[in-house]
Amino acid sequence: MGDCYMKIALCSDWYYPKIGGIATHIKGLAKYLSKLGHEVQIITVRNFDENYKDEDGNVIRLNASTIPGIQILSPLNLKQVKKVILEEKFDIIHGHHAFTPISLYSISLASKYGFPTVLTAHSLGMGYQYGIVWKTLKPVLYPVKRAFDKADKIIAVSEAVKQFMSHIVSHPEKIEVIPNGIDLEQFIYAPNGKKLREELDLPPDAPIALFVGRFSIRKGVHILIDAFKHVVKEIPDAKLLIAGKGFLKEYLKHKVKANKITENVKFLGCISGEILAKFYAASDVFVCPSIFAEAFGIVILEAMASGRPVIATRVGGIPEIIDHEVNGLLIEPHDVKELSNAIIRLFSDDRERFEMGRKARKKVEECYDWKKLIFDILNVYEEVQTPQIHI
Known about the structure:
Number of helices: 15
Radius of gyration: 21 Å
Number of strands: 15
Order of helices and strands: EHEEEEHEHEHHEHEHEHEHEHEHEHEHHH
CATH superfamily of the largest domain: Glycogen Phosphorylase B
Number of domains: 2
Shape: elongated
Largest sheet: 7 strands, parallel
Structural class: alpha/beta
CATH class of the largest domain: Alpha Beta
CATH architecture of the largest domain: 3-Layer(aba) Sandwich
Strand content: 15-25%
């Protein structure tokens, strides 16, 4: 990519204070585009969290109507999207998360007015590998599919997502896989993180497993809690740290109590930034027990960047990241016994754990560093800036 300066809009309903992989991805992409001299504006919905303040001045927030617990964009609100896009005169409109209003409307509108467009698909549908399911649903998905087809290029964050999207779009050949990136500067690579434990009020010598994610059925944390009961039987001082939030919180706390492992499990709440980086580095292993539709898993990259082996399930895009028996362990979803055995194995073998952690960090440096991936994104931008004909 040359030295051509661009003005880029990153459009998504999913941005901070909402926490998750999409928000992390957009923030990282914006940071590294800006470092290369491009002007970036993040177009997202109004923030209803009074305690949250945007750190940067590059966030444009649009009004959103609300129904209990949900933000929606009404036709009136969508006029704001049009106003921003036409007034700002962007060189690239880049939508994030394929099935959300701001992303889809931005792509459709930008295409109508001749702006180059890119859509990044971050998610999987259930049964994503079964083309017949999604081809059957095409009539229902027509308005969404129509917006997908208006994107000049689609980026899928994993091969699994590419497979899913190829069942829906009219031209699968315009889908390119570029994985999520990781900002290595934000993570602590310390093969032995015990020095951090005193600061975090964690036991100095107990083996520690960490989970980070939403408390939803899909993330499988309830299965992890059941598995940890068996871990504690073998290793009584083992600890499980659970970071996140979600509607299953009280159920999970009840499950911990029912399994009689209250002394072994600690709920950290919703943590991020420097504090989360310290917890990665202070833990021995990271566990991602998702049971379906995990498109990628940025938290897996974060743990690997911290030099921690990951135990995760063979679902979605996860097997594309973790090399079984090399930088982590892959297990079957729902399998409590296999999960507990994997945790016990890595807790019990310091040498194997450290070696897997070293190789995990190496893979992130080679394959997922934003400093390298940013040029793959820029190549896509350059490609879509050639004259397009929209039908």
